[in-house]
Amino acid sequence: MKRNRIDFSRAHAPLLFTAGTDDHIIPPGINRKNYDRYRLGSRSIVDFKEFEHRNHYGILGGPHWEEVADFVIDWAERHLPPS
């Protein structure tokens, strides 16, 4: 069986990993490991943001989801290509 492999060194669009400190479905360490692999493998923009006291649902579905959404929108706008 052929396995697909990720080429972390290829150029890609800006990439933001988000995590919640209290996430037990996808713990922050897993997101950080993926972030590190992309960050160290290419020259593309790669960032990581960990939100305190948030679980998996709480990142964008729980109370104060607007804080996360605002952060993501600001991040995306900072990385828009020049027009």
What do these coordinates show?
With 83 residues, the chain is an alpha+beta fold. Helices cover 34% and strands 14% of the residues. The chain has one domain (15-78). Strands 1-2 form a two-stranded parallel sheet. Helix 1 (28-41) links the parallel strand 1 and strand 2 (46-51).
Instruction: Give me the number of helical elements.
Output: 2
Strand order of the largest sheet: 1-2
Query: What is the beta-strand fraction?
Result: 5-15%
Largest sheet: 2 strands, parallel
Task: Itemize the secondary structure elements and their pairings.
Elements: E1 15-20, H1 28-41, E2 46-51, H2 65-78
Task: Tell me briefly what this model is.
34% of the residues lie in helices and 14% in strands. It has 83 residues and is an alpha+beta fold.
